[in-house]
Amino acid sequence: MILRPLKIGNVTVDCPVMLAPMAGYTDAAMRTLARRYHCGMAYTEVTSAEGLVRGSKQTLHMLETAPGEQPIAAHIYGANPDILAQAAAFIERTGRFQTIDLNCGCPVAKVVAKGAGAALIKHPEKIAQIIRAIKQVVSLPVTVKTRLGVAPDRMNISEIAQAVEESGGAAIAIHARCVTGRHTGQADWPALARIKSERSIPVIGNGGVLSAADVLRMFAETGVDGVMIGKAAVGNPWIFQEAWAALHGRRIPPPSMQERSSVIEEHLRMLIVHKERAGKSRRHPQNSAELSAVLHFRAHLAGYIRGFKGSAEVRRTLQGMRRVVDVMAAVNGLQAGETRAPVPS
């Protein structure tokens, strides 16, 4: 397979395997590790346009980046074209981001209730209106992340993709499931292939990618320009390295438990710094930065240790972990029982 860089407007993504935006996961710490292991581009967590315009410190904190993250996309949500345009203009002024990505697929009730996220799927003309409004005030490429439709009997991804392209969108990322499917069930890769054949802007595929082999399959079976990995990258930044190697006709051994332990601790330490900064945006932080980081890290830890002997016992004790030393003691206790590489989630 010939690996071609992904062009999003004037932005070049050398390795077109990307980290999907995930609320509660894709902060600077996770993105930094993914980029180290050949992730070509990452997206911020979903960020409120209204919060940015209001100057909310907690919302602004979600746009914090680390050195060397470029290219990176600011992933925002909202329903008001003017507010979204103002937020996009602010994002461009930070000088941190290379693209602005509009969320048109989040199924969370409080987002949908505001007419944002997945609610926009029903209104391709509104998506086009938002893109045009943003493009009037920024020079950065504007992209969209969406789903196939609200439900299997109401798939309108062709209309959405047409609206994105005709309004000047630079690329579209498609989670190959409907809103009703959330993150379960078979991803509809043939639909990705159809949209790729219909449109001239880059199409990025998402959904059902659990391994490096799946990355190769999605490229081969759908012809998409890029592949986006979500949950399978949680606690597994090495999936990007494995995909990069596979795309270059190589295979690499899975990380040892020693390497895994080192990265776990590094991830935790970065999270503590991240939480310290987040605490400054709150008047009365409830927890210490270390406790907040450990609590936040539980979902990541389950991915990091999956497939190792004793990992089930560690997962059972997650609720009692309060300090980095607690986490590392549990992780280091697994090393002697290492049996095989973790299975991607």
Tell me the distance between the termini: 25 Å
Number of helices: 14
Low-confidence stretches: 336-345
**Count of DSSP strands:** 11
- Overall SS class: alpha/beta
Biggest sheet: strands, sense, closure?
Answer: 8 strands, parallel, barrel
Radius of gyration: 20 Å
Helix and strand succession? EEEHEEHHEHEHHEHEHEHEHHHHH
Strand content: 5-15%
Keywords:
disordered C terminus, 345 residues, 8-stranded parallel β-barrel, two-stranded antiparallel sheet, globular, 42% helix, 11 strands, 13% strand, alpha/beta
Structural description of this entry:
- With 345 residues, the protein is α/β, with parallel strands linked by helices.
- Helix content is 42%, strand content 13%.
- The protein has 14 helices and 11 strands.
- The chain has helices at 28-36, 49-54, 57-61, 81-94, 109-112, 124-135, 157-166, 189-198, 212-222, 238-247, 257-279, 289-305, 311-316, 324-332, and strands spanning 6-8, 11-13, 17-19, 41-43, 47-48, 72-77, 99-104, 142-147, 171-175, 203-206, 226-229.
- An 8-stranded parallel β-barrel has the order 3-4-6-7-8-9-10-11, surrounded by 7 helices. Strands 1-2 form a two-stranded antiparallel ribbon.
- Helix 11 runs antiparallel to helix 12 (289-305).
- It is globular.
- The two termini are 25 Å apart.
